[in-house]
């Protein structure tokens, strides 16, 4: 809690407007039972909304970030299960950076376990593992140590 959270009614306060989506000057309309700013009015657009302290805004932002990460993880888990079932008849290939792969190949990685290749680019490939997507190297040539190109 900061001093700005105790700004008196009709006092000016800088906060983010929920309608304008910008940090703008507002007027305090009311306080809560603890004497802290509860409601403000935007001087630019005239909208009235609840006041969120900096601490509260950071907490909301963190919760939204956590929810988005969880949703992404769930989508990846569903996609992994679907691709694994679709490619269950394919034989797993042992992963090596020098190996050549194509889309929908099933690989066995020493650290990440079983994965399905979703996209192959020049010397990189996107692989979906149970823990999520990873970018792995492929089609690398082995060059003797000490040679220059």
Structural class: alpha+beta
Radius of gyration, in Å, reads 27 Å
Sheet with most strands: strand arrangement: 5-6-7-8-9
Largest sheet: 5 strands, mixed
Identify the overall geometry. elongated
Task: Quickly count the helices.
Answer: 1
Ends apart, CA distance between termini: 61 Å
- The fraction of residues in strands falls at 25-35%
Order of helices and strands: EEEEHEEEEE
- Beta strand count: 9
Low-confidence spans = none
Indicate the mean pLDDT. Answer: 88
Residues in helix, %:
10-25%
| Total domain units | 2
Could you explain how this protein is built, in words?
This protein is of the alpha+beta class. It has 2 domains: 3-52, SH3 type barrels (Roll), CATH 2.30.30; 59-137, no CATH class. The protein contains 1 helix and 9 strands, in the order E-E-E-E-H-E-E-E-E-E. It has one helix spanning 54-86, and strands at residues 12-16, 23-31, 37-42, 48-50, 93-94, 106-109, 113-120, 124-129, 132-137. The strands form 2 sheets. Strands 5-6-7-8-9 form a 5-stranded mixed sheet. The chain starts with 11 loop residues before the first strand and ends in a 12-residue tail after the last strand.
């Amino acid at each position: 809690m900061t001093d700005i959270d105790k700004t008196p009614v009709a006092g000016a306060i800088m906060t983010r407007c929920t309608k304008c989506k910008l940090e703008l000057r507002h007027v305090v309309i009311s306080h809560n039972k603890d004497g802290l700013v509860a409601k403000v009015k935007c001087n630019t657009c005239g909208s009235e909304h609840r006041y969120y302290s900096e601490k509260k805004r950071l907490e909301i932002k963190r919760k939204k970030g956590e929810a988005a990460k969880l949703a992404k993880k769930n989508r990846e888990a569903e996609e992994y299960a679907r691709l694994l079932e679709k490619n269950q008849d394919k034989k797993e290939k042992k992963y090596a950076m020098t190996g050549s792969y194509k889309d929908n190949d099933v690989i066995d990685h020493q650290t990440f376990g079983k994965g399905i290749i979703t996209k192959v680019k020049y010397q990189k490939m996107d692989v979906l593992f149970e823990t999520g997507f990873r970018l792995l190297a492929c089609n690398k040539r082995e060059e003797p140590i000490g040679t220059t190109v």
